[in-house]
């Protein structure tokens, strides 16, 4: 068996111990005589799995009792529509545009009402997080929308906007569980699992209870209403049962290594190894402002597309996968989510140093 260092932005690496446990439990989950994939989601055994997953997530993030945890399908992208369908009662919302995914969410919101851009970093190719101090919120706006970690551009918020009581919605897909998160700052947080938490196919939503009383826009399908999922414990219909089970194993693993403070310390160490080298390199340059750097997605380039290509070709041969930047931006992107081991980052930096020595005279 061979495992390689996979720098994919998502689906991404999972903790090896979780994969081993899933393998061990594949054919016979805890003497049930079946795999979790084959199990009725209405069984007592499965109820135990989803309840434990939720309880462990609540422990990890310190989620207050007045927030519901939902396990949904449809990816982050479905949330781009569910958010306005469920929260845009006056059909007005404010959006902070920090990259590809925030823009997509904004475009989707425009289907349902008036979406206002109150800040954007598009002027400098999304290489920074805009100043959050003097944002001008629209008085009638039903919510303010942000994307905390910009997967494609490699930026992350280091603080949150003060929305003066307006609901703040956070797409946390690519930094979820990479560090502690103050849930109380938000009305709604969502995260597609495949970036940092589990397999593609389950999206975690954390929603403040009072938001469930907002009537959805007329015509909102049953399955796209948060309240339906909340009232039915994420089991109005068949949930992505196996994916939730894997997420649950990841939650347990994160608790076992010390929770999110420990996870954050580890992520800071890993990112520092990479950024420190990039900052000292004569050939590689980071593409975003230092103050806005993501710990999860590290974007860099040489400035010469031919050299980037040579670097990527060699990287592939050396056993590093998924290092090319997103097709819309080029260059390189190393996604170093929770499950990327320190050794993977170190090996990448060693390869970068070798490449630099060979290409700088
Ligand atoms: C990947 C990603 C999405 C889209 O997720 P899908 O599950 O593919 O719909 C949305 N937001 C962010 C920040 C992402 O990284």
Describe this structure as you would to a colleague:
- With 361 residues, the chain is an alpha/beta fold.
- It has 2 domains: 16-256, 3-Layer(aba) Sandwich (Aspartate Aminotransferase, domain 2), CATH 3.40.640; 258-359, Aspartate Aminotransferase, domain 1 (Alpha-Beta Complex).
- It contains 9 helices and 14 strands.
- It has helices at 16-24, 44-61, 75-87, 100-109, 226-231, 241-256, 259-280, 305-317, 342-359; strands at 5-6, 67-72, 92-97, 114-120, 143-147, 149-150, 155-156, 167-171, 188-192, 203-208, 285-286, 297-301, 320-321, 332-335.
- The protein has a 7-stranded mixed β-sheet.
- Helix 1 packs across helix 6 (241-256) and helix 3 packs across helix 4.
- The mean pLDDT is 97.
- Bound molecules: pyridoxal-5'-phosphate (PLP).
- Pyridoxal-5'-phosphate is lined by residues 10, 75-77, 101, 147, 151, 171, 173-174, 192, 195.
Give a quick summary of the entry.
With 361 residues, this protein is of the alpha/beta class.
Beta-strand content estimate? 15-25%
How many individual domains?
Answer: 2
Which structural class do the helices and strands define? alpha/beta
Determine the number of helices (DSSP H or I, runs of at least 4 residues): 9
Radius of gyration: 21 Å
Tell how many strands the DSSP assignment holds: 14
At CATH level 2, the architecture of the largest domain is 3-Layer(aba) Sandwich
Could you tell me the mean pLDDT?
97
Helix and strand pattern = EHHEHEHEEEEEEEHHHEEHEEH
Question: Which CATH C-level class of the largest domain is it?
Answer: Alpha Beta
Helix content: 25-40%
């Amino acid at each position: 068996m061979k495992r390689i260092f996979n720098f994919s932005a998502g689906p991404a690496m999972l903790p090896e111990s979780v994969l081993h446990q899933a393998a061990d439990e594949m054919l016979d989950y805890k003497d049930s005589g079946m795999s979790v994939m084959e199990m009725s989601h209405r069984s007592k055994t499965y109820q135990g799995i989803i309840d434990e997953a939720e309880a462990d997530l609540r422990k990890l993030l310190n989620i207050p009792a007045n927030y519901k945890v939902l396990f949904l399908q449809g990816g982050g992208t479905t949330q781009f529509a569910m958010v306005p369908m469920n929260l845009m009662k006056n059909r007005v919302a404010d959006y902070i545009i920090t990259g590809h995914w925030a823009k997509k969410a904004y475009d989707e919101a425009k289907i349902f009402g008036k979406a206002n851009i109150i800040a954007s970093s598009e002027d400098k190719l999304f290489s920074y997080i805009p100043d959050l101090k003097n944002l001008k919120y629209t008085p009638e706006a039903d919510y303010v929308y942000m994307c905390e970690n910009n997967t494609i551009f490699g930026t992350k918020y280091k603080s949150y906007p003060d929305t003066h009581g307006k609901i703040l919605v956070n797409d946390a897909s690519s930094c979820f569980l990479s560090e502690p998160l103050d849930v109380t700052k938000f009305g709604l947080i969502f995260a597609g699992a495949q970036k940092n938490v589990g397999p593609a196919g389950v999206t975690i939503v954390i929603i403040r209870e009072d938001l469930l009383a907002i009537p959805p826009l007329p015509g909102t399908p049953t399955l796209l209403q948060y309240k339906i999922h909340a009232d039915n414990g994420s089991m109005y219909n068949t949930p992505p049962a196996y994916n939730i089970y894997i997420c649950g194993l990841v939650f347990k693993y994160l608790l076992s290594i010390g929770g999110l403070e420990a996870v954050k310390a580890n992520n800071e160490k890993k990112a520092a190894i990479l950024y420190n080298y990039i900052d000292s390199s004569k050939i590689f340059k980071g593409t975003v402002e230092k103050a806005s750097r993501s710990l999860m997605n590290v974007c860099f380039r040489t400035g010469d597309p031919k050299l980037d290509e040579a670097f990527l070709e060699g990287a592939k041969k050396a056993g590093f996968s998924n290092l090319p930047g997103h097709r819309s931006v080029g260059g390189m992107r190393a996604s170093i989510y929770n499950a990327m081991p320190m050794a993977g980052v170190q090996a990448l930096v060693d390869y970068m140093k070798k490449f630099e020595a060979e290409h700088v005279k």
